[in-house]
């Protein structure tokens, strides 16, 4: 029989302490996961052998999860996994933890150790997926396994959704899981996914790390620009070619970024909050943003990560034209990927872009687009946000600044927007700028200690979700 009531839950709180044997087993399990090259290439095109192997792997690594009677496991879209952990109190709305199994490709060149070796060196586990996002896949299942071994019975039901094609838009994984849950009429209290970290060293001269929880996510517009001209012999070229016209259009887009939308947004509030953490003269500048805001905005524009938080970004990602050295090409095409700031819409961006290009010879074709995700609540009543604050406070007592922000990329969680209004994107890991560059880049790695702490965080979080919320007094909510 299930225990019920908060008194019981408090009494049965399980400390997040793991034996030496468990700690070795958990890092070895992560290494094994990294060694399976679950690469996504294009929508619908992924390493299916590796994805199938991964499915077998988690069954072996987490036997208790798979044999527990109150946990239902389903494979969705052939390689994605959905776990439903039935809690003892059906009056509590369930929540969902998310992560993705797939990774972006990685060639050996440029890596200190082969990207799919999962080698441990100097206290770090190296490889593709160690930060994005097999760490979360494994940490969620690992925390649950350890809780189950300790006979923990959750009070609030929760789901675990592990997509297999997040890196190529989630069409066959997250979208299918979402459709399944919608068909079942599931409504969720909140979701926790990737795209937020404890940021260390991202703001020049600021020594203090802070947690960034993404409460929204940028929209996206993939726009193909095309110029058609009459083809001909290169020995007598026209004054302008399709390539030249298109190159000029693309250059105008790069030279004229979309407007800075910071206004009185969260980044400005964060800087005001942090003002006294800086030494002179930055402290004076940040304490007087009414005067210095234009200067600060210009400085932030120059930082590529901050720039991405402040505006809709413009990235020319593909450019194709020409077939032969002596043929004037008839067609030139360029694809531009815009990441839309939460206070703009697809339509607004499209109009601004057309005005900037201002050339009737350039045609615009929307390849695909979606609007930014709305802000999830981050007030006192927002259960998911408050649980993250509470868990941060106990696992990272040194962190006393938590900033709600928007995710500059996209995550699988956007496919679940009609199941909940509370989508929080946060991984409890310290990240420095060089770690950030390793995500989709070279030498991605996680320290063994950071991974253990991530497991501990989830272990605590699941238990916090079963207890009455307590306020987190020493944290500044921005
Ligand atoms: C005040 C200082 C601020 C410093 C800000 C630092 C920001 C750090 C945020 C960390 C972001 C980490 C990103 C992880 C999630 C990336 C997910 C991703 O790459 N998704 C793909 C999904 C996709 C979508 C559509 C087609 C294909 C793939 C993406 O491209 O967005
Ligand atoms: Zn990811
Ligand atoms: Zn990624």
From TrEMBL:
CDD domains found in the cross-reference section: M20_yscS
Pathway info: Lipid metabolism; fatty acid metabolism; Amino-acid metabolism
EC number: 3.5.1.114, 3.5.1.14
Domain annotation Peptidase M20 dimerisation: ranges: 216-359
Family: Belongs to the peptidase M20A family.
CC per GO annotation: extracellular region
Origin: domain of life: Eukaryota
PANTHER family linked to this entry: N-FATTY-ACYL-AMINO ACID SYNTHASE/HYDROLASE PM20D1 (PTHR45962), N-FATTY-ACYL-AMINO ACID SYNTHASE_HYDROLASE PM20D1 (PTHR45962:SF1)
Short name of one Pfam family: M20_dimer
Biological function: Secreted enzyme that regulates the endogenous N-fatty acyl amino acid (NAAs) tissue and circulating levels by functioning as a bidirectional NAA synthase/hydrolase. It condenses free fatty acids and free amino acids to generate NAAs and bidirectionally catalyzes the reverse hydrolysis reaction. Some of these NAAs stimulate oxidative metabolism via mitochondrial uncoupling, increasing energy expenditure in a UPC1-independent manner. Thereby, this secreted protein may indirectly regulate whole body energy expenditure.
UniProt enzyme class: hydrolase
Catalytic activity: N-(5Z,8Z,11Z,14Z-eicosatetraenoyl)-L-serine + H2O = (5Z,8Z,11Z,14Z)-eicosatetraenoate + L-serine; (5Z,8Z,11Z,14Z)-eicosatetraenoate + L-phenylalanine = N-(5Z,8Z,11Z,14Z-eicosatetraenoyl)-L-phenylalanine + H2O; N-octadecanoyl-L-phenylalanine + H2O = octadecanoate + L-phenylalanine; N-(5Z,8Z,11Z,14Z)-eicosatetraenoyl-glycine + H2O = (5Z,8Z,11Z,14Z)-eicosatetraenoate + glycine
Protein's name according to its UniProt entry: N-fatty-acyl-amino acid synthase/hydrolase PM20D1
Keyword terms of this UniProt record: Hydrolase, Metal-binding, Protease, Signal, Zinc
GO MF annotation terms: aminoacylase activity; metal ion binding; peptidase activity
GO biological process: adaptive thermogenesis; amide biosynthetic process; amide catabolic process; amino acid metabolic process; lipid metabolic process; proteolysis
Record carries keyword Metal-binding: yes
Keyword Acetylation: no
